[in-house]
Amino acid sequence: MKTMQRISRRIFLAFGLLAAGLAQAQLSIEITGAGANRIPVAIADFLGDPTASRVVTATVRSDLERSGLFKLVDTTGAALDENSSINHGEWKGKGADALAAGSLVRTADGRMEARFRIYDTQKAVALGGAAYVTGNEQLRIAGHRIADYIYEKLTGEKGVFSTRIAYVVKTRGQFLLQIADADGQGAATALTSPEPIISPVWSPDGSKLAYVSFEKKKPVIYVHSLASGQRTIIANFKGSNSAPAWSPDGRRLAVVLSKDGNSQIYAVNADGSGVQRLAQSAGIDTEPRYSADGASIYFTSDRGGSPQIYRIGANGGDAQRISFEGSYNVSPRPSPDGKSLAFIARREGRFQLAVMDLASRQVQVLTDSHKDESPSFAPNSRMILIATEVGGRGVLSAVSSDGRIKQRLSVAAGDVREPAWGPFYH
Amino acid sequence: MKKLIIPAILSVLILGCSSTPIDENGGAPVESRNGAGNGTGVAKVVADGGDANGLPRELTDPKSTLAKRSIYFDLDKYEVKDEYKDLVAAHAKYLVANRGFKVLLQGNTDERGSREYNLSLGQKRADAVKRSLTLLGAREDQVESVSLGEEKPKNGGHDDSAWAENRRADILYKAADGRGEF
């Protein structure tokens, strides 16, 4: 007899629902490429509450499809939930390597429970299942959790459907710092300003953003708690304060200050105390980013005559040049898995997303656009979000690390820029 | 500086998660997971850009040399060109004669390339003007050089003439009583 495990952890999350002012800058998403070998997966319509089922089923399907790694198999006529016995041969015959089935049931306290199982039809076994309870307004989030579960079972990697992204929208002379789900839905405005906002970066725990705001007529670095809206100035020295980057433990930020003349890299504690200079150069040093292990910092410098990517220890030390090809390589972003480095390369006057394999130092240009900026890795290192320009408008584009899969996120009435992909859901 | 904080959380919804083991039918167990909640909520904050003027006429009268506040730069350059030497000298002279006044020098670049790298380039342009002003007698504590990078283009176009207009350093004044342009 199997031991039934009762997990009685109970987590409460306060959720701020922003009623007003969100619709005007909603992101829309467009898929412009897909992976070569997509896994055929059947997601049966969830049984139970029909309204809730539509939301959850549609979210799971669109998440998986948008990833570019899955091909949806038609499930018309299937009436399956997580307890149905599965005719694996039949689903194999329909071309599905995997099948998910589930149901939505209202709980005693009026919330909604989504239960499901995922099966491997080739091996005719269940791969696992889960149950999520959410409020009725949060059904899409349950869908994202289910899609993450299925993604992980089928690819062996963690999914990023439950993560969030931050970005800046410029619309009607205003700058909006917004947060949305990774699929662009549910956008909420964290900050509205008449002056530019650039370089947002997520704290490792996903609760705060650091960014540069020009509301004081000069660049000043803020740390902004998303739930409370509380903002702390962490660097407002004489001159410019910019390019914040969190250390992986969330205790320090690397920043760029011109207080001693020229843009140079410093580290500060997360409350702005303990300023320490990390590098010295006669030229420009900027765009610091910690490696995933926290041991080193990648940055841009023109110390060799043209802007190139360098690396130093997290506490300073000798700089090592990393980029060599071309005369303009900027905005280095080490991947969370530590294997690669995304950056922006200028090639024949066009600014394009490139990725370097850090072991072989091989560089691959991933886009054919002309104005790519500000790359940001998904926490599973599989996709890179960039700002680019299409038809004179600023849009976001998510590109897979092999360049095959591409998605575009845009807003109807404005420019979108400065994307930052948040951490895994904690 | 005014600051308006919109009531932090408009509505709060508690999301919980319960654990309900469900019947096994030969497959893997259905675990109970910590239920949804996309991180924390997001409260909206409105920042205010600050206020303007109250400066003496000689700084704002269009007929005055001192009303000219922009210095333009060549592509990828940050040396103050000869044609702006007189203008910079006039501002230095004003600062020497009016020690209570301060200036904020804002460096700007065109839109091409990395925003943060451009921020550093704009800083170099503002620093070049600052160096000229202090060499001509302005005191260090009267002059702050900062950069707006490519973020505040004077000309929103995307061609050579727009870019030329945006490679620029601007001089903003503040009087001893705190009134002014920054």
Which labels suit this protein?
heterodimer; A: 426 residues; mainly beta; Rossmann fold; Neuraminidase; 2 domains; six-stranded mixed sheet; five-stranded antiparallel sheet; 3 helices; 32 strands; 9% helix; disordered N terminus; B: 182 residues; alpha+beta; 60s Ribosomal Protein L30, Chain: A; four-stranded mixed sheet; two-stranded antiparallel ribbon; 8 strands; globular
What does this structure look like?
- The complex is a heterodimer of chains A (426) and B (182).
- By secondary structure, chain A is mainly beta.
- Chain A folds into two domains: 32-155, Rossmann fold (3-Layer(aba) Sandwich), CATH 3.40.50.10070; 164-421, TolB, C-terminal domain (Neuraminidase, 6 Propeller), CATH 2.120.10.30.
- Chain A has three helices and 32 strands.
- In chain A, the strands form seven sheets. In chain A, strands 3, 4, 5, 6, 7 and 8 form a six-stranded mixed sheet that branches. Chain A has a five-stranded antiparallel sheet with strand order 2-31-30-29-28, with no helix packed on it.
- In chain A, helix 1 (50-66) crosses helix 3 (139-155).
- Chain A is globular, with a radius of gyration of 23 Å.
- Chain B has helices spanning 57-60, 85-97, 115-135, 160-166; strands at residues 4-5, 12-15, 30-32, 45-46, 70-72, 102-108, 143-149, 168-174.
- In chain B, strands 5-8-6-7 form a four-stranded mixed sheet. A two-stranded antiparallel sheet of chain B has the order 1-4.
- Chain B is globular and about 45 Å long.
- Chain B starts with a strand and ends in an 8-residue tail after the last strand.
Give the secondary structure arrangement, pairings included:
The complex is a heterodimer of chains A (426) and B (182).
Chain A: E1 13-16, E2 27-31, E3 39-43, E4 47-48, H1 50-66, E5 70-73, H2 88-93, E6 98-106, E7 112-120, E8 125-134, H3 139-155, E9 164-171, E10 174-181, E11 188-193, E12 197-202, E13 208-213, E14 220-225, E15 231-235, E16 241-246, E17 252-257, E18 264-269, E19 276-277, E20 285-290, E21 296-301, E22 308-313, E23 316-321, E24 329-334, E25 340-347, E26 350-357, E27 363-365, E28 373-377, E29 383-390, E30 393-400, E31 406-411, E32 415-421
Parallel strand pairs in A: 3-5, 3-6, 4-6
Antiparallel strand pairs in A: 2-31, 6-7, 7-8, 9-10, 9-32, 10-11, 12-13, 13-14, 14-15, 16-17, 17-18, 18-19, 20-21, 21-22, 22-23, 24-25, 25-26, 26-27, 28-29, 29-30, 30-31
Helix pairs in contact in A: 1-3
Chain B: E1 4-5, E2 12-15, E3 30-32, E4 45-46, H1 57-60, E5 70-72, H2 85-97, E6 102-108, H3 115-135, E7 143-149, H4 160-166, E8 168-174
Parallel strand pairs in B: 6-7
Antiparallel strand pairs in B: 1-4, 5-8, 6-8
Helix pairs in contact in B: 2-3
